[in-house]
Amino acid sequence: MKKIVLIGMPNTGKSTLLNRLTGAHAKVGNWPGLTVSLLSARLLVGDQMAQLIDLPGIYDLNGYSDDEQVVTTYLQTQKPDLILFMMNASQVDRQLNLLSQVTSQGIPVVMVMNMADEASALGITIKPEVLSQNLGLPMCLLSAKYGQGTAQLQKLMREGLKAQAPQALTPSKVEQAFQTGVMVPAQASHQLTERIDKVLLHPWLGLPIFFAMMLLLFEGVFAIGKPLQDGMSWLFASLRTEALEPLLSGLPAMAQGLLLDGLYNGISTVASFVPLIILFFLFLGIVEDTGYLSRAAFLMDALMSKFGMDGRSFVMLLMGFGCNVPALLGTRVIRSKGLRYLTMLTIPFSLCSARLQVFVLFIAAMFTTEQAPWVLFSLYLVSILMAMLTSVIFKKQYVNVDAFVLEIPPTVCRPCVKWC
Amino acid sequence: MIALDHFQVGDQGKITGIQAEIELRQRLAAMGLREGGVVQVLRKASMGGPIHVRVGTTEVIMRRIDAQRITVVPLLELMAAP
Question: What is the pTM of this model?
Answer without folding.
Answer: 0.70
